[in-house]
Each structure stands twice: as structure tokens, then as C-alpha cells.
Amino acid sequence: MAELDLNAQAARLARRLEAIPATVLEALRPAVVQAAEDLAATARSLAPEAEGDLKASIVVTPPGAETPAYAEGGGRRVAGANQALVTVGNPEQRHGHLVEFGTKPHVNAGQFAGTQHPGTAAQPFLLPAARLTEDRARRRIARAIGQAVRKAAQGGGHA
């Protein structure tokens, strides 16, 4: 299965949506947020059980809001006007990527410097959740766009 190129998909979608009236974008946002909530719920259900802290760090950032610290490459990001972001991590839970992708055997640093770590097996939860929810999200968003465009065409919106 081809890897998801989410940035390229988001850029294509952003270009296509720039031409749509603001009323249609307003109608689209709830569908985008609901799709993200579905993805987050699925990721939580697939995340491995520990104390539940990793699961609790899976959150949705709605359009215009800022992601939690450490969620995206160690920094914060503001979701675009037509985006809802699903992130894993917070200041206390910074290991989601290690769980998702696993680790190779390595020599430890820090508190356990010099000891050998055997590595950990990958326990994917976020990418599988994205794959499982992608088709439904596309249908939900397409339906919301279609309904909003029809409503705008019928004079129900300010196009």
C-alpha cells in the first residue's frame, strides 16, 4: 500500500477549496472535525494499553486552533481554516512515534548510559487508524461539500 502523502493531499485540497465560497467552507468544517474525531477515536482504540496516558494524548485540533506542545515534531502548529489535525503527544507523553514505529537496538544514554537497549517492536496505531477511516472521511467531507454547494446554488448561502 502506498504511503500517505498527507502534506501533498492537504495542499491539493487547499488549492481546490480556495475557489469555494466562504459559506461552503463554513459548512465543511463540522465534517472535517468529525472525520478527525473518528480518526482519533480509532487511533485510541488501536493504541497499546499501558496506563492509558498515550491514548489520552491523542487529540483533535480544530480549524484555527493550535496543536499541543510536542505533538508535531516537537513544536506547535496552527490548523488551517479547512483542517482538523490529529496529534499524539503532550509535554508528559512524548513517545508516540517510538510506539508507532518501534526502535532499533541501541546503547542507552542519559540515566542508563552505556547499557544496551534491545529495541522495541513497532505497535502501529495512528497510520492504521488513518487508513481505516480515510474512505469514510472522504465520503463525509464530499457529502458536506455537495450539500453546501446545492444550498448555496439554491440561494441558501451567500456565494
UniProtKB/TrEMBL annotation:
Pfam families recorded: HK97-gp10_like
Top-rank taxon: Bacteria
Name this protein carries in UniProt: HK97 gp10 family phage protein
Provenance organism: Rhodobacter capsulatus (strain ATCC BAA-309 / NBRC 16581 / SB1003)
